[in-house]
Amino acid sequence: MELFSEYFKKDHLLSQIDARIKLMVSLATLAMVLSYRGFALPLFVTLLCLFFCLRMKVPFKVLLLRFSEPCLIASVVLLLKFFFSGNNVMFSLDIMGLKLSGYQDGLLEGLMIASRIFGAVSVVVVLGFSTPFTEFMAGLSWFRVPRAFIEILMFAYRYIFVIIEDAMVIYHAQKNRLGYSNIRRGLNSFGIMTGSLILKAFENSQNTTVAMVQRGYDGTTPLLKHKPFRVLEVALSMLFIIIIGIVWQI
What are residue 93's DSSP bridge partners? Predict the structure, then answer.
């Protein structure tokens, strides 16, 4: 549950900034990071975002969990580019009749893609850590994101915790019965748990639909009301975007 906790999203500078401002800055930064041809801007953004995470006192374990999947994706892209793309051969290996070559230009291209992955993920991570979910949804509604999409996100976020709780109950019950004593039994137990969670998810969706209709749900969910923009926040956000833009031009 610590992965979804919001206790480190409070009492710091970024938590006091309007969610709409953070969304605009994040989108502008993402656009520049993903369109940059080089290493300087993605690495600068990654280090800056890690600094913000440390200032927010995000647990190190949570950071590792958030970056584990991007690290895997970046590693796969880097290996594919290094061994299967390029013209300048660095070395060649003959493994059981299979010739494998490493390319210098492929390595550089793979590193650039990996740096953009880390830069973009860092921006999203800081946005998620610094913005409570309800404020994030209200910010999306201000940007005229379809209301149906926002409501689906809200319901999904609500029932993530229910599914996690059910999964932990099933997992501990299986573990106490030696369901994970070896690889074969572990895979079988995991399959049973997955099937049970899917059935529970369908059951919860039906029960929620019936309960909401009985309580007068008409297809609209009230969201937070927006406060007026503060001049200082807008000025600082524009200054930040300008600084990132200068680095993007280099």
Answer: 100
How is residue 39 written in tokens? 């290493």
Q: Are 9 and 15 in contact (CB under 8 A)?
A: yes
Average pLDDT over residues 40-60: 89
Distance, in Å, from the CA atom of 172 to the CA atom of 194, rounded to the nearest integer, reads: 14
What residues contact 39, with CB distance under 8 A and at least 6 apart?
A: 111, 112, 115
Q: Where are the alpha helices (DSSP H) in 56-182?
A: 60-84, 104-130, 133-142, 147-176
Backbone angles phi, psi at 86, to 5 degrees: 135, 175
130-147: b (≥16 Cβ within 10 Å) or e = bbeeebbbbbbbeeeeee
pLDDT digits (tens, 9 = 90+) for 97-121: 777 888 888 899 999 999 999 999 9
The angle formed by the CA atoms of residues 128, 131 and 137, to the nearest 5 degrees, is: 95
Any residues with CB less than 8 A from the CB of 76 and at least 6 apart, and which? none
Rounded alpha-carbon distances, angstroms, from residue 145 to 123, 133, 151? 20, 15, 11
CA quadruple 146, 32, 130, 242: dihedral sign:
negative
pTM above 0.70, yes or no: yes
Tell me: pLDDT of 124 over 70: yes
